[in-house]
Amino acid sequence: MSHQPNKNVDIHDEVNYDPTVWVPRVHSHGTSDIWRRFWILLGLTIIDVGFYFTLPTGMLRNITFIVLGIVKAWFIVGTFMHMKHEKKSLAYMIILPMVFIIFFIYWMLFEGNFWGSFL
User: Fold this and answer.
1) How high is the pLDDT of residue 49?
2) pLDDT at 77
3) Window from 18-32, 36-50, 59-73, 96-110 with minimum mean pLDDT
4) What is the mean pLDDT of residues 70-94?
5) Using an 8 Å Cβ cutoff, are 71 and 41 in contact?
6) HSE (CB half, 13 Å, CA atoms) of 19?
7) Domain ranges of the chain
8) How far apart are CA 38 and CA 44, in angstroms?
9) Is residue 41 within a helix (H) or strand (E), and if so which, with residue range?
10) In the predicted model, is pLDDT for residue 10 greater than 60?
């Protein structure tokens, strides 16, 4: 076995030291997408608060808040909980039970004869 000198650059060698080789550069890893989603969510929240003070109390107001809430939840789960980067099967495992829960709430309201009491 031959003993050869190490040809790697020693970081303590002041003559050949190049900090760009040893110090990684900071890269933006998709922060523009996060900021874009943030501004969209802020806009939806401002619209949500505006509807709260302008729409009259009733079923239209409730449906508007539910729809805006679902849209905001979709943005939050997709971006900040990284669901848009997951496999489709995992996303379906999370989304399908929510669909069933919403259907169950609809079904129970219908069965409980609640529809006529809030119109």
Assistant:
1) 94
2) 83
3) 18-32
4) 82
5) no
6) 1
7) 30-84, 86-119
8) 10
9) helix 31-54
10) no
